[in-house]
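Here comes my example:
=====
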Amino acid sequence: MEWLTRWLSDGGSGELTPRKYGEGSVFQRADGRWLGVLDAGFTERNTRRRVSVTGKTEGEVKRKLRDKRAEIAKASGQVSSGASLRRTVKSWVDEWLPIRQATVRPATYAVDSAAVRWMLPVFGAKRLVDLTPRDIRAFHARQRTANLKASTINRHHGAVRKMLKDARQEGLVVPDNVLEVPAVPEGETDRVAMTTAQALTLMHHAADLPHGSRYFVAFYQGLRQGEALGLTWDSIDFGANNITVEWQLQPLPYLDKADRSKGFRVPDGYTARHLKGRFHLVRPKTRKSHRVIPMVDEIRDALITIAETGQETVGNLVWVRDNGWPIDKKDDGEEFRALQAAADIWHPSGRPYFGHEMRNTTATLLLELGADPVTITAILGHSDWATSVGYMTSRPEQMRAAMEGIAATFRPKEIG
């Protein structure tokens, strides 16, 4: 290692007492002087390039390392003015969050703000230029200690990484290796499709509920929770037997909970129709999510039965509470779990199925019935086939039938 060769030639004895700091490492040599080592990327031969500095005191070496980091940042196109080098994470977050609030969907902003709440106690007081991979790992560790799921930690990780990348775009100095820290391992998801028998049993029990047809549509049409709860009669064409998925139900936060007359937090360019309270109808999250799905006779008959009741509903919604108000997502989830318990239906692990696993069931059944990738992706409203594949579960009976088909293909054929 080049830095070690230089250190030895400078009179070192071989004994190093490591001191971890900033982006580099700081050591005190046997002769009392201090050595700082900085990872400066790669050489033209793709080998690690390291820069070292020495000084009489630890503080002197730390200052020299900061100067070196600033030089490297400037060479890579980052601004390294004194003001930018002094910027703390907290000061940038105070500027960044309002930008995000005005430009991203409310659900995305909720993840951003949650990530910031977990991050600030860990390294909010540090300067951006002094961040290290260790800070990101400590951010992960704090959430693991609180028993947050790996998927949640990784959503927060992505938000913090976006925050730091945006800081760079503004000309602030953020070390390269901080952005290279990987997300935490999530392991395999246990989300699977229900069996056909389970889906049929659940729909049978749901038939007795005031809005049990909501589950029929979820299984048959593959609607997301917000899409189902946000379905309006205006989106149903009984003449053409089509359902247009064009809205989803979303509660938006108030700008000021103490003074609700100030309205709601709505990002720029975000389409939202106010219904009641915090409830709004908003557009689906992607262009592909806005879709038209054929309506089969079973769904048509179930919806006609509801329409014949003549109940007035807020926003002309199909499924509502007894008072005509929208159904809260939390209440909808609790009803789905209660429905499973009443039908004695359980996930293979013993837990209740998640509502989103009804979409897994739709995707798996479409695949088993021989639907082509384009059709499955269009029905589910995914952006691409790879996303749809993640919703599918391979069942033993279908796998065996497929393997038998392969075997039949390769078996010797009689000639003549």
